[in-house]
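Thread: quick sanity check before group meeting

JM: Hey all, I'm pulling together slides for Thursday and realized we never actually wrote out the predicted structure for the chain we discussed last week. Dropping the sequence here so it's in one place. If anyone has concerns about the input, flag it before I start.
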Amino acid sequence: MLIRRLKTLLQPLSDPHLRLIATESTQNQLSNPSNCLNPITPINQPTLLKVCTILYQQQNSPDSRLHSSLSSYNPSFNPEFFLQVCNTFPYSWRPIYRFFLYTQKVPHFTHNSVTFNKMLDVAGKSKNIDLFWETCQEMGKLGLVNDKTFRIALKTLALARELKKCVGFFHLMNVFGVGYKLETLNTVVESLCKDKLVEEAKFVTFKLKECVEPNGVTYKWLIWGFCDLGNLIEASKIWNLMVDEGFEPDAEVVETMMEALFKTNKYDEAMKVFQMMRVKRMHDLGLSSYRLVIKWMCKRGKIEQANGMFEEMCQRGIQADNLTLASIIYGLLARGRIREAYRIVEGIENPDISIYHGLIKGLLRLRKASEATQVFREMITRGCEPIMHTYIMLLQGHLGKKGRKGHDPLVNFDSIFVGGLIKAGKTVEATKYVERTMKRGMEVPRFDYNKFLHYYSNEEGVMMFEEVGKKLREVGLFDLADILERYGQKMATRDRRRERAVDP
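JM (edit): ok, ran it. Output follows.
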């Protein structure tokens, strides 16, 4: 049973391309003489399986027994091999730590910053804080600490809400000669904000202010993080602090704040920020700023204002891209100006999927599902492959967001979806869905098209879509049949998605 389990874990590593990806592109780092003295050698998968089996079975055994079992495999041990073992036990610190202690006694094996960082990551994920700190101190003594170490350490401590230790880590590394660096702080703040640990990033930034003075980049990532969480109050406080300290928000920060205001239905406040930029810093406004404003103007039906922004952009010599034109097309269609929208589409030399999505979304808003399906066929003919979002938009247009527009079982997905759930062995979910839909006095929630397409994204789904397509054609639903059959042909399996061939 154990061997089968480990084989499953190690199976993806049999492909050399996947192996290099799994070890986070360590080949370039390890092949650098300044980082490592051990050259990369191909990993013997049977040996890796045997070693991992020994480590798992004997993780609580005495050192003498474990070392005796591992000694016959010494020639195979190198940093790459150690990384593969870590990938096999990403959340188990004991097998990794026992192997780490053993490899320190192997004469030809030398650990480097990459292997230490990997073990630090495993210790952090397994929440062994004692081992985590021990590893941090050893890395500091050996001078192997780098920016990756800081990112791993601060993320681990921030997730554990050890805020004082987050600051303490910087002080600890300073003791070992890794001085306070603004670049390191910005790297850590960026990493924490991208992991939605913005409060922790803010705490570290302000507590280290006496040692490392934050700059515009630091504040930019804090504003981005709070905007990403939808916390505009904190984002505004950071913005004001940034301005008070003499840093001018760049165009990227302004756009981040504007987009957060748009998303939270504060259209007027977002436009005030944009007008401020137009008055004081017109030279900083570029394509991305105009694209953002035009997109939200079109979403709110303010097509005349959007056209005004578009003309201003063109007068300044800024060339519109397809995303901007797609927003204009959608805005025109939403206001029923179909001819103008098609005129713009005809003038686009190389339309991409954003243009077609703008057309499809606008036509569906006008309840022209058949015409939207014709655009879907046209984009395939022109060599533009649909994505999952394309199919979901079209299915919602034909069947409604609740998955039903009539009592005919071929028109709604109740019977199809429930049958698929039962066939997939998800009887509990199927029962809940049936109970919910039988209570017709209650409002039926939206149909989850993402879940539906996910359940049928396999070879069995290909046959299902073909059968459903035939039945739909029998009752005259040719558009819906084409959409489902196309999904079955091109999107149903991973291999088919990788080898998409555009039909003539």
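AS: nice. Confidence is low (pLDDT under 50) at residues 1-39, 406-411. Residues 459-474 form the longest helix (16 residues).
JM: adding both to the slides.
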